[in-house]
Design brief:
- The chain is of the alpha+beta class.
- The chain has a domain of 129 residues: Alpha-Beta Plaits (2-Layer Sandwich), CATH 3.30.70.2970.
- It has 5 helices and 10 strands, in the order H-E-E-H-E-E-H-E-E-H-E-E-E-H-E.
- The strands form 2 sheets. Strands 2, 3, 4, 5, 6, 8 and 9 form a 7-stranded antiparallel beta sheet that branches. Strands 1-10-7 form a 3-stranded antiparallel beta sheet, covered by helices on one side.
- Strand 3 and strand 4 form a beta hairpin.
- The longest helix has 27 residues.
- The radius of gyration is 32 Å and the shape is elongated.
Length: 243
């Protein structure tokens, strides 16, 4: 009899616990999940691009000397407009033999040296003409390759803060409208997930610069490099209580 009574108590406690859990789960289910996005457009103040110098000679040493001469010229140009050493980096340096085919025979043409330098130019915003002036200067160096230009902004703290605020306000507005339509009241947010990004702008300049001499420099038009705008975007996913 005692065992039966004890078993009955255990079953009743279990049922009570299950009932409480069911109520808790029911309460938790009274939520709504919404998303909101905010976007702020800003003008970039940084441009980054790569310059590749490639020289061919009979020996690797001669090819390297020719490459070093051009690289030194380019580095002097970018330093002259205020680019610091921290914003200059060699991203690739290659040495290899170059061949050509003639009548089904592979012939050694010479030794090729190729060096790529990544350059970051700051302070291009506003009325600054530092970037067009630098591109004009680099254009005086013959047979070099310039990669795509990428625009960015050095400090986006304020813009991200504003875009997150806009995103949260839109999420709150959307949740309030749903709650009103369902004849319920909107409670506090339970969880917030943030997804932020910057849409970097790029201008394709995958072309070979072939300027030669002062005559070419005088006849070359001044570089026109529109920087456009960057989109700072934040998206939030918010779960609200419904009362």
């Amino acid at each position: 009899m005692r065992k039966f009574a004890l078993l009955l108590v255990v079953v009743l406690v279990g049922l009570v616990g299950f009932g409480c859990q069911s109520v808790s789960l029911l309460e938790r289910s009274r939520t709504i999940s919404v998303q909101g996005s905010g976007k702020v457009s800003v003008s970039p103040d940084i441009a980054s691009f790569s310059i590749t110098v490639s020289e061919l000679a009979e020996t690797t040493r001669d090819a390297q000397l020719k490459t070093n001469e051009k690289v030194g010229t380019i580095l002097a140009m970018v330093r002259a407009v205020g680019v610091e050493n921290k914003d200059l980096a060699t991203t690739s340096l290659e040495f290899y033999p170059e061949y050509r085919w003639k009548e089904d025979e592979q012939l050694l043409v010479g030794q090729r040296v190729r060096q790529t330098i990544h350059i970051t130019v700051r302070g291009i915003g506003g009325t600054s003409n530092i970037l067009p002036a630098l591109i004009d200067e680099i254009g005086s160096v013959s047979n070099i390759s310039m990669s795509s230009i990428r625009f960015s902004k050095e400090d986006t703290t304020a813009e991200f803060s504003e875009s997150r605020k806009m995103a949260m306000e839109k999420a709150l507005q959307k949740a309030s409208e749903y709650a009103h339509a369902a004849n319920m009241k909107l409670g506090n947010p339970i969880s917030v997930s943030d997804y932020s990004s910057t849409d970097y702008q790029g201008v394709s300049r995958n072309t070979m610069v072939k300027a030669a001499g002062a005559y070419m420099m005088e006849s070359m038009p001044e570089a026109d490099v529109p920087t456009g705008e960057l989109d700072i975007t934040s998206t939030v996913s918010v779960v609200f209580e419904l009362l």
